[in-house]
Design goal:
mainly alpha, about 60% helix, 2 strands, globular, two-stranded antiparallel ribbon
Length: about 210
């Protein structure tokens, strides 16, 4: 859900949020037929009740001109987004793990970021010499990469020390007015999940 907030905020779209606080709220949505596959998140937009995070993100990116100018650019955006999605997915699993497993996977996340993911984005920015990843135009790929960078920095603050292009990229994208606003205290950006949040999620979703 956080990536959806990032994309809407970057596009300058104001949005309202409704949070599921009890299992009864989730069951009502399911009973009313609001959740196509019985799962959240769900976004109401343009008369639709959209589910499945990737479908929601693709629609928002297309609607707000953040999805490239042609099929080839969209393919590159998709590839870059899938890479950052994989990396962020590893981080999002950490709060659900035991302390021992968490420590092990933190090391794995750092290693993967340094050797598999960040070198790809570093090289792309260096090779084409543009400010943005695809087509020299701000896109969903840039937003997703900044979100991933900030998430990895929460695990290892100096992760970008060997990536000068990504350091400059972070500074540029963070200063885009809509994103700068989203990064300020009091925005709709959510903090990393803590133990209390995880316990509440487990209770609501019976996991």
């Amino acid at each position: 859900m956080e990536s959806i907030r990032w994309l809407l905020a970057a596009a300058g779209v104001e949005f309202e949020e409704q949070f599921i606080e009890k299992n009864e709220h989730l069951e009502k949505l399911r009973k009313d037929g609001d959740l196509l596959f019985q799962q959240v998140p769900m976004v109401e937009i343009d008369g639709m009740k959209m589910v499945q995070t990737r479908a929601i993100l693709s629609y928002i990116a297309g609607k707000y001109n953040l999805y490239g100018k042609d099929l080839k650019e969209r393919a590159w955006i998709d590839m870059y987004v899938e890479g950052t999605t994989d990396l962020m997915g590893m981080i999002m699993q950490l709060p659900l793990q035991s302390a021992e497993m968490r420590e092990k996977n933190l090391a794995l996340i750092t290693e993967r970021a340094k050797t598999r993911y960040f070198p790809v984005y570093e090289k792309a920015l260096k090779d084409h010499g543009h400010d943005y990843l695809v087509g020299n135009k701000f896109s969903w790929a840039d937003i997703h990469l900044l979100e991933a960078i900030l998430m990895v920095e929460e695990c290892k603050p100096d992760i970008l020390s060997a990536f000068p292009q990504l350091q400059a990229f972070k500074g540029r994208i963070s200063n885009i007015p809509t994103i700068k606003k989203f990064l300020q205290p009091g925005s709709q950006r959510k903090p990393p999940a803590d133990d209390k949040y995880i316990a509440n999620v487990r209770k609501i979703f019976n996991i």
